[in-house]
Design brief:
7 strands; transferase; alpha+beta; 5-stranded mixed beta sheet; 201 residues; glutathione-specific gamma-glutamylcyclotransferase; Hypothetical upf0131 protein ytfp
Length: 201
């Protein structure tokens, strides 16, 4: 059984690899962009190589239920991904990291990694929450019929999968980040009249 590292182990790894005074950065690629729930002293656009954003992680609570699972984005191996890096406040970084850990890792579904993130002012190692393709929560790519069924019906404690997709699409659009698959999925939802009036107009 896979046991992800705890916060203390991650911080030891960061400081051993990059130095004791290295700032703590977090890479956001979906909801961590538009709902970070932690204080950041700095944000930069960033790109990671070797990983990509994919709407393939099953959600039984936040965006769906066990009876009708929803989907959320995950960072899967392969390709590249543009998003944002957030620098946690120097004097309170570890406390903010604990808050983030409580949000992202209650079930240990992710594999947290320090990934090199390329920003306009240089590379920073940032904590990223990745998903193993072998994890049971990682679904094979859905065809459009199956995806539309999820977008029509999946709803969890934080709302629908469709809302989550649209919020992520809007956050990327306002930051000038192109994600062709997200744009395709939004267009698919539009063709099938799933979009709210403000999105469809």
């Amino acid at each position: 059984m896979h046991h992800p590292p705890d916060i203390e182990a991650l911080l030891r790894d960061l400081r051993q690899r990059f130095g004791p005074r290295r700032a703590l950065w977090v890479f956001g690629y979906a909801s961590l962009i538009w709902r970070p729930e932690f204080d950041a002293e700095e944000c930069r656009p960033a790109r990671v190589q070797g990983w990509h954003r994919a709407l393939r992680m099953r959600s039984h609570i936040n965006r769906g239920t066990p009876e009708r699972p929803g989907l959320v984005f995950a960072l899967l191996s392969g390709g590249a991904c543009r998003g944002e890096v957030h620098r946690l406040p120097t004097g309170n970084a570890e406390a903010e990291l604990h808050r983030l850990w409580s949000r992202e890792m209650p079930t240990g579904v992710y594999t947290p990694r320090w990934l090199p993130c390329h920003t306009p002012t240089g590379m920073v190692p940032a904590l990223a929450f990745t998903l193993s393709r072998r994890h049971q929560a990682c679904l094979a790519p859905l065809d459009d019929v199956a995806m539309l069924d999820v977008l029509r019906h999946a709803r969890g404690r934080y709302g629908t999968t469709l809302d989550y997709l649209l919020q992520t699409a809007e956050a990327l659009r306002t930051r000038g980040i192109r994600d062709r698959e997200i744009e395709r999925l939004v267009a698919l939802a539009g063709r099938h009249r799933l979009l709210p009036p403000t999105e469809a107009s």
